[in-house]
Specification:
This protein has twelve helices and 14 strands. By secondary structure, the protein is of the alpha/beta class. The structure holds nicotinamide-adenine-dinucleotide (NAD). The site of nicotinamide-adenine-dinucleotide (NAD) has 23 residues, from α4.
Length: 370
């Protein structure tokens, strides 16, 4: 049965268009083999938008993003635009999209495909089969709190100030996203803060506990201090299913968790906003990596993080869990078959280009659907 899903694609700069090209092939495959029609439009963001329009994202593009069911973004930035004023740098395009779409929940899965378990800096048995999800609050906390700034005191010394601040609705909306995710996974949520030393952490813990009692008592909830969580992530990461935490702790813990998997080229992400009156949730999907100017235009980039971002898009925006599973299984099989782009190359494996990795993925999809 055909359906129409409005997808805005923003390939961006550097390797962005190269890895997005491989996603287009998967979109085509879905169209032909699963009879799922996406209404795809493509636009500019980042350096390419600066070149075309003088700004990193136009109002029209932001408008299109607001009206789409989901946005897929490659990566932005590169040396060509490094010397521009901060206010019109490529990254501002991405920041504006996140802000205008009010994307408050950042989902970063850390998944280790068996074939890559040896690439982690941790012992193989600690990470083999790892599948955790970190939900980071993205629009509040100390990165945005007021007062902030650097001031000079009467005695001539200087003082830098940032404010960690969270309100009840900010905590509840991100906790809800995390509880809902846990329900679709192993039904376990660990809420992380520093309630031992921070009032905002006390409030966070109280609100999450209250919400759990009121709406999510079927989910197993635990609480952990952020410093302990950092230790546990490298000691025994498989103990976690879903972690929910604030902006600052999430920034660090999600990067630490990412490195358990061994490669930037394998890491997808999603940023979600609120559900609107029509039941649609604004969402942007992008790989964790940047535009990798050092390997751009060389057909060397690993397209799997981008492809896995598309699979998250299918799962969370279009409720197409079966198709998302299909893509993830195809990725697993391609890796098990020994193909590697340069970033994940291991001894005895076959080094392949971006295009050949995409070819292999589509072949696996064909086999799985046969
Ligand atoms: P980067 O992620 O682009 O690259 C870091 C290293 O990882 C590089 O050696 C690169 O070759 C490698 N790498 C990254 N993705 C890869 C892939 N898919 N396959 C193979 N190798 C890959 O980070 P950077 O070098 O710090 O930044 C480069 C540019 O990207 C900068 O302009 C930066 O501002 C921008 N950036 C953008 C985003 C984004 O768009 N979300 C995120 C981070 C950095």
């Amino acid at each position: 049965m055909a359906s129409n899903k409005k997808l805005l694609v923003l390939p961006g700069d550097g390797i962005g268009p190269e890895v997005m090209r491989e996603v287009f092939r998967v979109v085509d495959w879905m169209d032909k083999r699963r009879a799922v029609t996406f209404d795809v439009s493509e636009d500019l963001v980042g350096g390419c938008a600066i070149d075309a329009h003088g700004i990193p994202v136009t109002d029209e593009t932001v408008g299109q993003a607001m009206e789409s069911d989901a946005v897929l973004l490659g990566a932005v930035g590169g040396p060509k635009w490094d010397n521009l004023d901060f206010s019109i740098k490529p990254e501002r395009g991405l920041l504006r999209l996140r802000k205008d779409m009010e994307l408050f929940a950042n989902l970063r899965p850390a998944m280790v495909f068996d074939a890559l378990a040896e690439a982690s800096t941790l012992k193989t048995d600690l990470v083999a089969g790892l599948n955790i999800m970190i939900v980071r609050e993205l629009t509040g906390g100390v990165y945005f709190g007021e007062p902030r700034g650097i001031e000079e005191l009467p005695d001539g010394t200087r003082r830098g100030v940032n404010t960690q601040v969270y309100t009840t609705p900010e905590i509840i909306r991100v906790a809800k996203v995390a509880f809902e995710l846990a329900r679709k996974r192993d039904n376990r949520l660990c809420s992380v803060e520093k309630a031992n030393v921070m009032e905002s952490g006390v409030l966070w813990r109280e609100e999450v506990t209250k919400l759990h009692g009121e709406e999510y008592s079927d989910v197993e909830l635990s609480h952990m201090y952020a410093d302990n969580c950092a230790m546990q992530l490298v000691r025994a990461p498989k103990q976690f299913d879903v972690i929910v935490t604030d902006n600052l702790f999430g920034d660090m813990l999600s990067d630490a968790a990412a490195m358990l998997t061994g490669s930037l080229g394998m890491l997808p992400s999603a940023s979600l906003g609120d559900v609107d009156a029509t039941g649609r949730r604004k969402a942007l999907y992008e790989p964790v990596h940047g535009s990798a100017p050092d390997i751009a235009s060389q057909d060397m980039a690993n397209p799997l993080a981008m492809i896995l971002s598309f699979s998250m898009c299918l799962r969370y925006s279009f409720d197409m869990g079966e198709e998302a599973d299909l893509i993830e299984t195809a990725v697993e099989k391609v890796l098990a078959g020994g193909l590697r782009t340069a970033d994940i190359m291991q001894p005895g494996k076959a080094k392949v280009s971006t295009t050949v990795m995409g070819d292999a993925l589509v072949r696996e999809l064909d086999k799985l659907a046969a």
